[in-house]
Specification:
This protein has helices spanning 9-13, 153-158, 169-172, 311-314, 347-357, and strands at 79-87, 92-101, 113-120, 129-130, 141-149, 160-167, 181-186, 196-201, 208-209, 223-224, 237-245, 250-259, 272-279, 287-289, 300-308, 318-325, 333-340, 363-368. It is mostly beta strands.
């Protein structure tokens, strides 16, 4: 049209084209569906209709959910029933494993289990005992007693018993699996010569990485318990019997057994034997040694040796007892030793004097081993 004027660019930009109030930008995640099994359903736009009042019904009782295998509750691992007896007269600790209940194996189906016991602090294999394996049961019954020889009241004050319920790897033809559960009992709570029964929940195994300064050549694993770090100062102990025979006119020395010896071989064990030497040597036979016991840290010898001489002469001498690890083709490793004489201290002196003070009376006593080799010159 000729009468209509032409709109300039400035007038065109001045036209009110405001879209209205600014609205918030929706999140991009609102455009995608969410799938959460336990989440609430996605929010929907509000319904303009008034909400209806729901009709409430009587609450229905719902069963309690069963604990899952990976629950943090210790009861999910099962319980272990056992009895402890500290025999102070015979220096022994008896642990009777009765039964386990509610075990949770790593795999479904039946499980083949046994109970393994250790004393802490101490080398793991030096005090390791185990029951037989019960096959195909999640509530196994063992009724088996594990006995620690050479266990004194001093040991009870500072030792802790660890019990593990383990799955037998050989029957499953697979590598050793972690324990199904474990528990620890401070032995200082035991009353001597009085049995005490326990029914304790199993817990998960607690592992701590060993410091690099410890000798790894002794067959110890990289992960051990914290209490085991103090075990390297302990060399073990030996049970000796002394008796002066009036009929034979000499001293009978019996090497009965050793307990909790330090492992010297790469497999974590030792091949121990015991050497005896009566000092000073007066030209008579004064050196003996027992037979070798293979791959054990708790050997039993029950061997007896004889030293001839009157009691007055023997009272002036020193009996050197040393425990060694036998090595074929190389020098034997010294494990520990003890010396008995009238100049020794403590129970070593008392054992020697009481033996020579009375005839035909056998005296048995446990002696801790020293880590320093005993050497006396003639």
């Amino acid at each position: 049209m000729a009468g209509r004027g032409r709109v300039s660019m400035q007038e065109h930009m001045a036209i009110d084209v405001s879209p209205g109030p600014i609205r918030p930008i929706r999140l991009i995640s609102n455009y995608f569906p969410h799938f959460y099994p336990t989440a609430e359903p996605a929010l929907r736009p509000p319904d303009p209709r008034p909400p209806e009042t729901p009709v409430r019904s009587a609450p229905q009782p719902q069963p309690d959910p069963e604990p899952e295998g990976d629950s943090d509750d210790s009861t999910a691992l099962g319980t272990l029933e056992f009895t402890l007896l500290l025999d102070a007269d015979n220096s022994t600790l008896h642990c009777t494993a009765h039964r386990a209940k509610g075990l949770k194996p790593l795999a479904s189906g039946s499980v083949d289990t046994f109970v393994k016991a250790n004393l802490l602090p101490g080398a793991s294999k030096a005090s390791q005992l185990r029951t037989r394996t019960v096959r195909g049961s999640r509530g196994p019954v063992w009724e088996e007693t594990l006995t620690y020889h050479g266990f004194t009241l001093q040991d009870a004050r500072r030792k802790t018993l660890r019990l593990c319920v383990c799955e037998d790897p050989w029957l499953r033809r697979r590598r050793r699996a972690p324990p199904l559960g474990e528990l620890r009992v401070p032995l200082r709570k035991l009353v001597p010569n009085r049995a005490r029964s326990f029914d304790v929940c199993l817990e998960r195994r607690r592992l701590t990485k060993r410091p690099k300064s410890l000798d790894a050549a002794r067959g110890m694993s990289l992960y051990e318990e914290v209490e085991a770090e103090a075990a390297w100062d302990e060399r073990g102990r030996v049970l000796l019997s002394l008796c002066y025979s009036s009929q034979r006119g000499g001293l009978l020395v019996g090497v009965l057994r050793c307990a909790h010896l330090a492992p010297m071989d790469a497999n974590g064990y030792s091949d121990p034997f015991v050497r005896l030497c009566l000092h000073p040597n007066a030209g008579k036979k004064s050196k003996y040694k027992t037979s070798v016991r293979k791959k054990t840290l708790n050997p039993e010898f029950n061997e007896e040796f004889f030293y001839a001489g009157p009691r007055e002469e023997l009272a002036q001498k020193t009996l050197l007892v040393s425990v060694w690890d036998y090595d074929l083709g190389t020098a034997d490793d010294f494990i520990g030793g003890v010396q008995l004489s009238s100049r020794a201290g403590g129970e070593r002196q008392q054992h020697w004097r009481e033996c020579l003070g009375r005839s035909d009376r056998r005296l048995e006593l446990w002696h801790p081993l020293d880590g320093t080799p005993l050497q006396l010159s003639d």
